[in-house]
Amino acid sequence: MTAPTGPDTGAAPRTGPDAAAGRERAAALLRADGTPEAEWARWDGWKTIGTAPRIEGPVVVVAAHPDDEVLGVGGTLARLTAAGTEVHVVTVTDGEASHPGSRRVPPDALARLRAGELAVALDDLGVDRGRRTRLGVPDTRVDAYEDEVAGRLADAVRAGGARLCLAPWTGDLHADHEAAGRAARTAARDTGAALWYYPVWTWHWAAPGDDRVPWDSVRRLPLTAGEQARKARAISRFRTQTAPLADDPDDPTVILPPAELLHHRRPFEVILL
């Protein structure tokens, strides 16, 4: 996950004054205090949300930044790999813009750190090292490379014979997440693969029953205790996001504080069909 910033965070329209205003509104929502997980846990609406269909592989999993795939569907990845399902993870950016205030950890160094964190996290989840692709698109600028990303994703789907693509939700209110989701939508359309979205920031800015979320498309992916544990271990690998950068008093930012992580430690994950 990369921290939300004003000019690079938001939804369509993608250009012009309306786009800029939309990005600022989205940025304000993402920077504000989020909805506590306890409020989500008390929500009666979960009782009416059904379980997702059985996943038929192979599967291509798309992430805008290193950690998005683990936060959104890490437990499901653990289940798929344990069952022998082929999983190909495509990470669009290296997340080098998550700490723009740091003077001791410049973007190129941060990109290397985050790539290393992701590698260990995907090891934890059992993802084959030969089925991991980093596209290296500039962090916070995925929308400018959307067509290229869509083409690369379509190539990955075709190469692996993937039947399903899992991607960030196009309504997640983070520009990179939304652009990655749109690129995945194009790739799925062009290849005939099914497409499921997973939300990441939604649990922060939305509230139970929020009419900005299409709840009729939401399904749950239940997790076993073992899958939850593997996901938690994988999340803990992302030290650049879950703690201040080491030895950098200039930037004490924690992108994923404990309260935010609670959203991603549920006994189930959520997708939008």
- Briefly note the CATH topology name: Rossmann fold
Percentage of residues in strands: 5-15%
In CATH terms, the superfamily is: LmbE-like
| N→C terminal distance | 22 Å
**Sheet with most strands:** 5 strands, parallel
Can you offer a commentary on this structure?
It contains ten helices and seven strands. It is an alpha/beta fold. The chain has one domain: LmbE-like (Rossmann fold, 3-Layer(aba) Sandwich). It has a five-stranded parallel sheet, with helices on both faces.
List the helices and strands and how they pair.
Blueprint: H1 16-31, H2 37-41, E1 59-63, H3 68-82, E2 87-93, H4 107-125, E3 132-137, H5 146-160, E4 164-168, H6 175-191, E5 194-198, H7 202-205, E6 218-222, H8 225-236, H9 239-242, H10 258-261, E7 268-272
Parallel strand pairs: 1-2, 1-4, 2-3, 4-5
Antiparallel strand pairs: 6-7
Provide a concise account of the structure shown:
The protein is α/β, with parallel strands linked by helices. The chain has ten helices and seven strands.
List keywords for this structure.
five-stranded parallel β-sheet, alpha/beta, 41% helix, 10 helices, Rossmann fold
